[in-house]
Design goal:
The protein is of the alpha+beta class. The chain is built from 4 helices and 6 strands; from the N terminus they run αααβαβββββ. It has a single domain, classed as Nuclear Transport Factor 2, Chain: A (Roll), CATH 3.10.450.50. Strands 1, 2, 3, 4, 5 and 6 form a 6-stranded antiparallel beta sheet that branches. The chain starts with a helix and ends with a strand.
Amino acid sequence: MRKDPLERFLDSACRAVSSKNSVAFMDLISNDYVDRYGLTRGNIEEMIRRLFLSFDDIKVIIPGKTTSREQKLAGNIILEFKVVATYISQPQAQPGVDLSVYGNQRYYLVGGPTETGSMTLSLRKEGKQWRLLSVEHIDIGRPIPHYAP
């Protein structure tokens, strides 16, 4: 079955994150991006750059989307998701730091083993491609990131 354009947008975003391809990710963000938190396209670009530098592996898991046909037609997606990131490399030796605890540690940045985070994505069709215009109602699913099994 052929995916609708908004699902293709999500697939592209997940691929860009998992491959840590900031150019591909930023191509999905509208030049007009601004959200109610005051973030702009430039802020998103810096956040993504730091995220990709901070972790060796990042995986986005989307167990379900709760989006009606009307919302899709308006370019809105209510997304439930998890983000799991892994540190593979070890930091430089520092006095008093036990390096044996580093390496191959996984963290839930969004959601957890049994819970998901959620957000509402507002998209706009620009030319032939859907691009992210803003994000609202962000809930990371818990207060503090924790280890993943």
